[in-house]
Amino acid sequence: MIDELRALKLIKERFGENYVGVAIGIGDDTAAVCTNPDNYLLSTTDSQVQGVHFEKSTINPREL
After folding, report:
1. How many Å apart are CA 48 and CA 61, to the nearest integer?
2. For residue 4, what are the contacts with CB-CB under 8 A and spacing of at least 6?
3. What is the spatial distance between Cα 15 and Cα 21, in angstroms, rounded to a whole number?
4. How far apart are CA 47 and CA 38, in angstroms?
5. φ, ψ for residue 63 (rounded to 5)?
6. What end-to-end distance do the CA atoms of the chain give, in Å?
7. 36 and 23 in contact (C-beta within 8 Å)?
8. DSSP characters over 23-42
9. From its phi and psi, is residue 21 left (phi > 0), alpha (psi between -120 and 50) or beta?
10. 28 confidence band (pLDDT: 50, 70, 90)
11. Mean pLDDT of the chain
């Protein structure tokens, strides 16, 4: 598994950073894509990695 910064680097190398219609792109927690002059589509995702973001012994699935 690669970490988030490495994944972002690979995406930037493959696709670049600037696309027409992308108001907020790679590097932020949420992307904003202009779908027409009055609307934006917002997209976000995040991962939680045991040992990095939480410890299995100190949190249950509901809390996570």
Report:
1. 11
2. 47
3. 15
4. 31
5. -65, -35
6. 20
7. no
8. EE-TTSSEEEEEEETTEEEE
9. left
10. low
11. 83
